[in-house]
Amino acid sequence: xxxxxVITNVLGLAIGAGLNLYAAVLVTGLGIHYGWLTRxxxxxxxxxxxxxxxxxxxxxxxxxVADKVPFFTPIWDGxxxxxxxxxxxxxxxxxxxGMDPLPRTxxxxxxxxxxxxxxxxxxxxxxMAHTTPEPTTHAAISIAEDVGVIALLxxxxxxxxxxxxxxxxxxxxxxxxxxxxxxxxxxLVAALWGRLRPKRACAPGRGVRVFSRKTPGAPRLWPGELxxxxxxxxxxxxxxxxxxxxxxxxxxxxxxxxxxxxxVRCAGGASFYVTRDWRxxxxxxTPAAASAQTxxxx
Length: 298
What we know:
By secondary structure, the protein is an alpha+beta fold. It has helices at residues 3-33, 50-66, 73-79, 83-95, 101-129, 135-158, 160-196, 279-285, 287-290, and strands spanning 208-214, 223-229, 232-239, 242-249, 254-256, 262-265, 271-274. Helix content is 57%, strand content 14%.
Protein backbone atom coordinates (compact mmCIF):
# COMPACT_ATOMS: atom_id res chain seq x y z
CA UNK A 1 0.00 0.00 0.00
CA UNK A 2 1.16 3.54 -0.63
CA UNK A 3 2.18 5.67 2.33
CA UNK A 4 -0.83 8.01 2.27
CA UNK A 5 -3.26 5.08 2.26
CA VAL A 6 -1.49 3.47 5.22
CA ILE A 7 -1.54 6.72 7.22
CA THR A 8 -5.18 7.50 6.47
CA ASN A 9 -6.31 3.93 7.14
CA VAL A 10 -4.51 3.79 10.49
CA LEU A 11 -5.68 7.24 11.61
CA GLY A 12 -9.23 6.69 10.35
CA LEU A 13 -9.57 3.31 12.05
CA ALA A 14 -7.98 4.63 15.25
CA ILE A 15 -10.32 7.62 15.50
CA GLY A 16 -13.30 5.49 14.51
CA ALA A 17 -12.40 2.81 17.07
CA GLY A 18 -11.95 5.47 19.77
CA LEU A 19 -15.46 6.77 19.12
CA ASN A 20 -17.25 3.50 18.34
CA LEU A 21 -15.10 0.41 17.90
CA TYR A 22 -17.97 -1.86 16.89
CA ALA A 23 -19.23 0.54 14.21
CA ALA A 24 -15.69 0.77 12.75
CA VAL A 25 -15.34 -3.02 12.63
CA LEU A 26 -18.84 -3.50 11.23
CA VAL A 27 -18.46 -0.88 8.47
CA THR A 28 -15.05 -2.20 7.42
CA GLY A 29 -16.16 -5.83 7.52
CA LEU A 30 -19.31 -5.18 5.49
CA GLY A 31 -17.35 -3.18 2.96
CA ILE A 32 -14.93 -6.07 2.44
CA HIS A 33 -17.70 -8.70 2.47
CA TYR A 34 -19.73 -7.02 -0.26
CA GLY A 35 -16.73 -5.98 -2.35
CA TRP A 36 -17.09 -2.26 -1.76
CA LEU A 37 -13.54 -2.09 -0.37
CA THR A 38 -10.91 -3.75 -2.54
CA ARG A 39 -7.73 -1.86 -1.70
CA UNK A 40 -7.37 -2.83 1.94
CA UNK A 41 -4.63 -5.21 3.18
CA UNK A 42 -5.49 -8.90 3.07
CA UNK A 43 -4.95 -9.09 6.85
CA UNK A 44 -8.19 -7.15 7.34
CA UNK A 45 -10.26 -9.72 5.44
CA UNK A 46 -10.92 -11.49 8.74
CA UNK A 47 -13.33 -8.66 9.55
CA UNK A 48 -15.64 -9.92 6.78
CA UNK A 49 -16.06 -13.33 8.40
CA UNK A 50 -19.75 -13.98 9.32
CA UNK A 51 -18.85 -14.68 12.95
CA UNK A 52 -17.00 -11.37 13.27
CA UNK A 53 -19.78 -9.46 11.53
CA UNK A 54 -22.45 -11.05 13.73
CA UNK A 55 -20.60 -10.28 16.95
CA UNK A 56 -19.79 -6.72 15.81
CA UNK A 57 -23.45 -6.14 14.91
CA UNK A 58 -24.66 -7.39 18.31
CA UNK A 59 -22.14 -5.28 20.21
CA UNK A 60 -22.94 -2.25 18.05
CA UNK A 61 -26.63 -2.70 18.85
CA UNK A 62 -25.81 -2.85 22.57
CA UNK A 63 -23.70 0.32 22.32
CA UNK A 64 -26.40 2.03 20.25
CA VAL A 65 -28.81 1.59 23.19
CA ALA A 66 -26.28 2.24 25.96
CA ASP A 67 -25.12 5.52 24.40
CA LYS A 68 -28.60 6.99 24.71
CA VAL A 69 -29.18 6.34 28.41
CA PRO A 70 -28.05 9.27 30.61
CA PHE A 71 -25.83 8.33 33.57
CA PHE A 72 -25.30 4.82 32.16
CA THR A 73 -23.20 6.17 29.28
CA PRO A 74 -20.20 7.08 31.52
CA ILE A 75 -20.21 3.54 32.93
CA TRP A 76 -20.24 2.04 29.43
CA ASP A 77 -17.51 4.42 28.23
CA GLY A 78 -15.44 3.79 31.33
CA UNK A 79 -15.58 0.05 30.70
CA UNK A 80 -14.42 0.67 27.10
CA UNK A 81 -11.43 2.81 28.11
CA UNK A 82 -9.21 -0.23 27.56
CA UNK A 83 -11.26 -2.00 24.89
CA UNK A 84 -11.33 0.77 22.28
CA UNK A 85 -7.58 1.53 22.22
CA UNK A 86 -6.81 -2.22 22.23
CA UNK A 87 -9.19 -2.70 19.29
CA UNK A 88 -7.49 0.16 17.43
CA UNK A 89 -4.10 -1.50 17.97
CA UNK A 90 -5.38 -4.77 16.51
CA UNK A 91 -6.90 -2.98 13.51
CA UNK A 92 -3.61 -1.15 12.95
CA UNK A 93 -1.81 -4.48 13.09
CA UNK A 94 -4.01 -5.63 10.21
CA UNK A 95 -3.17 -2.53 8.18
CA UNK A 96 0.57 -2.80 8.85
CA UNK A 97 0.80 -6.59 8.94
CA GLY A 98 3.18 -6.81 5.99
CA MET A 99 5.65 -4.20 7.28
CA ASP A 100 8.90 -4.63 9.13
CA PRO A 101 8.65 -5.02 12.93
CA LEU A 102 9.84 -1.49 13.80
CA PRO A 103 7.38 0.54 11.66
CA ARG A 104 4.63 -1.94 12.52
CA THR A 105 5.22 -1.42 16.24
CA UNK A 106 5.31 2.36 15.87
CA UNK A 107 2.06 2.32 13.89
CA UNK A 108 0.36 0.17 16.52
CA UNK A 109 1.49 2.50 19.32
CA UNK A 110 0.32 5.54 17.37
CA UNK A 111 -3.07 3.93 16.70
CA UNK A 112 -3.59 3.13 20.37
CA UNK A 113 -2.66 6.66 21.40
CA UNK A 114 -4.96 8.28 18.84
CA UNK A 115 -7.82 5.96 19.80
CA UNK A 116 -7.33 6.80 23.49
CA UNK A 117 -7.42 10.50 22.61
CA UNK A 118 -10.63 10.08 20.60
CA UNK A 119 -12.16 8.01 23.39
CA UNK A 120 -11.19 10.61 26.02
CA UNK A 121 -12.69 13.38 23.89
CA UNK A 122 -15.89 11.38 23.54
CA UNK A 123 -16.07 10.83 27.32
CA UNK A 124 -15.42 14.51 28.01
CA UNK A 125 -18.21 15.63 25.70
CA UNK A 126 -20.59 13.05 27.17
CA UNK A 127 -19.79 14.09 30.74
CA MET A 128 -20.30 17.73 29.79
CA ALA A 129 -23.70 16.76 28.34
CA HIS A 130 -24.71 15.41 31.75
CA THR A 131 -25.18 19.00 32.91
CA THR A 132 -28.49 18.64 30.99
CA PRO A 133 -29.33 15.00 31.83
CA GLU A 134 -32.19 14.34 29.40
CA PRO A 135 -32.21 11.57 26.79
CA THR A 136 -32.75 13.75 23.69
CA THR A 137 -29.33 15.41 23.96
CA HIS A 138 -27.55 12.09 24.48
CA ALA A 139 -29.42 10.45 21.62
CA ALA A 140 -28.48 13.30 19.27
CA ILE A 141 -24.80 13.10 20.29
CA SER A 142 -24.79 9.31 19.88
CA ILE A 143 -26.34 9.41 16.42
CA ALA A 144 -23.91 12.16 15.37
CA GLU A 145 -20.99 9.99 16.51
CA ASP A 146 -22.25 6.95 14.58
CA VAL A 147 -22.84 8.95 11.40
CA GLY A 148 -19.45 10.63 11.83
CA VAL A 149 -17.60 7.30 12.15
CA ILE A 150 -19.31 5.86 9.05
CA ALA A 151 -18.73 9.01 6.98
CA LEU A 152 -15.11 9.30 8.10
CA LEU A 153 -14.28 5.69 7.22
CA UNK A 154 -16.03 6.00 3.84
CA UNK A 155 -13.92 9.08 3.10
CA UNK A 156 -10.73 7.34 4.29
CA UNK A 157 -11.28 4.25 2.16
CA UNK A 158 -12.43 6.00 -1.02
CA UNK A 159 -10.50 9.29 -1.03
CA UNK A 160 -7.37 8.95 1.13
CA UNK A 161 -5.75 12.14 -0.17
CA UNK A 162 -8.84 14.15 0.75
CA UNK A 163 -9.23 12.36 4.07
CA UNK A 164 -5.68 13.07 5.26
CA UNK A 165 -6.12 16.82 5.97
CA UNK A 166 -9.50 16.08 7.60
CA UNK A 167 -7.86 13.54 9.92
CA UNK A 168 -5.04 15.95 10.77
CA UNK A 169 -7.57 18.66 11.63
CA UNK A 170 -9.40 16.21 13.89
CA UNK A 171 -6.15 15.37 15.65
CA UNK A 172 -5.40 19.07 16.13
CA UNK A 173 -8.90 19.65 17.51
CA UNK A 174 -8.47 16.76 19.97
CA UNK A 175 -5.12 18.16 21.12
CA UNK A 176 -6.73 21.56 21.77
CA UNK A 177 -9.90 20.24 23.44
CA UNK A 178 -8.47 17.45 25.58
CA UNK A 179 -7.11 19.68 28.39
CA UNK A 180 -10.50 21.38 28.75
CA UNK A 181 -12.42 18.11 28.49
CA UNK A 182 -10.14 16.64 31.15
CA UNK A 183 -11.05 19.54 33.45
CA UNK A 184 -14.74 18.93 32.69
CA UNK A 185 -14.40 15.27 33.63
CA UNK A 186 -12.51 16.10 36.83
CA UNK A 187 -15.10 18.71 37.81
CA LEU A 188 -18.10 16.43 37.22
CA VAL A 189 -16.50 13.56 39.13
CA ALA A 190 -15.81 15.95 42.03
CA ALA A 191 -19.38 17.27 41.87
CA LEU A 192 -20.83 13.75 41.92
CA TRP A 193 -18.56 12.68 44.75
CA GLY A 194 -19.47 15.87 46.61
CA ARG A 195 -23.13 14.86 46.61
CA LEU A 196 -22.26 11.51 48.20
CA ARG A 197 -19.77 12.63 50.83
CA PRO A 198 -20.75 14.13 54.19
CA LYS A 199 -20.92 17.89 54.50
CA ARG A 200 -17.70 19.63 55.47
CA ALA A 201 -17.03 22.46 57.82
CA CYS A 202 -13.87 24.45 58.36
CA ALA A 203 -12.73 27.49 60.32
CA PRO A 204 -13.01 30.97 58.83
CA GLY A 205 -9.99 31.95 56.78
CA ARG A 206 -9.40 28.45 55.46
CA GLY A 207 -9.69 27.80 51.73
CA VAL A 208 -12.79 26.20 50.21
CA ARG A 209 -12.25 24.00 47.16
CA VAL A 210 -13.92 25.49 44.05
CA PHE A 211 -13.69 25.34 40.24
CA SER A 212 -13.48 28.57 38.26
CA ARG A 213 -16.64 29.37 36.32
CA LYS A 214 -16.15 32.91 35.03
CA THR A 215 -12.95 34.20 36.54
CA PRO A 216 -10.68 36.75 34.82
CA GLY A 217 -7.14 35.42 34.86
CA ALA A 218 -8.05 31.74 35.39
CA PRO A 219 -9.04 29.08 32.83
CA ARG A 220 -12.59 27.77 32.93
CA LEU A 221 -13.15 24.87 35.38
CA TRP A 222 -9.70 25.29 36.89
CA PRO A 223 -9.51 23.87 40.45
CA GLY A 224 -8.37 26.02 43.32
CA GLU A 225 -9.39 27.46 46.69
CA LEU A 226 -11.61 30.40 47.53
CA UNK A 227 -10.42 32.22 50.63
CA UNK A 228 -12.45 34.90 52.40
CA UNK A 229 -9.92 36.69 54.56
CA UNK A 230 -10.14 40.14 56.06
CA UNK A 231 -11.40 42.69 53.56
CA UNK A 232 -11.12 40.63 50.38
CA UNK A 233 -11.91 37.34 48.69
CA UNK A 234 -9.08 35.61 46.84
CA UNK A 235 -8.91 32.66 44.44
CA UNK A 236 -5.77 30.60 44.98
CA UNK A 237 -4.66 28.06 42.39
CA UNK A 238 -1.58 26.59 40.75
CA UNK A 239 -0.79 26.76 37.05
CA UNK A 240 2.35 25.50 35.33
CA UNK A 241 3.60 24.57 38.79
CA UNK A 242 3.44 28.15 40.09
CA UNK A 243 1.04 29.39 42.78
CA UNK A 244 -1.36 32.12 41.64
CA UNK A 245 -3.61 34.45 43.60
CA UNK A 246 -6.46 36.54 42.14
CA UNK A 247 -8.48 39.05 44.12
CA UNK A 248 -12.10 38.45 43.06
CA UNK A 249 -13.90 40.94 45.27
CA UNK A 250 -14.78 42.00 48.80
CA UNK A 251 -16.04 39.47 51.34
CA UNK A 252 -19.49 37.87 51.50
CA UNK A 253 -19.78 36.04 48.15
CA UNK A 254 -23.27 34.88 47.23
CA UNK A 255 -24.06 31.15 47.12
CA UNK A 256 -26.70 29.85 44.67
CA UNK A 257 -28.08 26.32 44.43
CA UNK A 258 -27.42 24.22 41.30
CA UNK A 259 -28.31 20.71 40.12
CA UNK A 260 -24.74 19.49 39.57
CA UNK A 261 -23.01 21.92 41.93
CA UNK A 262 -23.59 25.25 43.61
CA UNK A 263 -22.44 28.57 42.14
CA VAL A 264 -20.55 31.16 44.14
CA ARG A 265 -20.86 34.72 42.81
CA CYS A 266 -18.45 37.37 44.00
CA ALA A 267 -19.13 41.10 44.08
CA GLY A 268 -16.35 41.71 41.58
CA GLY A 269 -18.13 39.66 38.88
CA ALA A 270 -16.18 36.41 39.20
CA SER A 271 -18.08 33.18 39.80
CA PHE A 272 -17.13 29.64 40.82
CA TYR A 273 -18.59 26.16 41.12
CA VAL A 274 -18.50 24.65 44.59
CA THR A 275 -19.36 21.02 45.28
CA ARG A 276 -22.08 20.21 47.79
CA ASP A 277 -19.74 18.80 50.42
CA TRP A 278 -17.97 22.17 50.67
CA ARG A 279 -21.17 24.22 51.13
CA UNK A 280 -20.89 24.24 54.91
CA UNK A 281 -17.26 25.31 54.65
CA UNK A 282 -18.20 28.38 52.62
CA UNK A 283 -21.10 29.13 54.97
CA UNK A 284 -18.68 29.00 57.91
CA UNK A 285 -16.50 31.62 56.27
CA THR A 286 -19.33 33.99 55.38
CA PRO A 287 -22.28 33.01 57.60
CA ALA A 288 -24.22 36.24 57.25
CA ALA A 289 -24.14 36.28 53.47
CA ALA A 290 -24.50 32.57 52.86
CA SER A 291 -27.26 31.67 55.30
CA ALA A 292 -30.12 32.95 53.14
CA GLN A 293 -28.84 31.27 49.97
CA THR A 294 -28.29 27.87 51.61
CA UNK A 295 -31.80 27.37 52.96
CA UNK A 296 -32.61 25.18 49.97
CA UNK A 297 -30.12 22.56 51.15
CA UNK A 298 -31.55 22.10 54.62
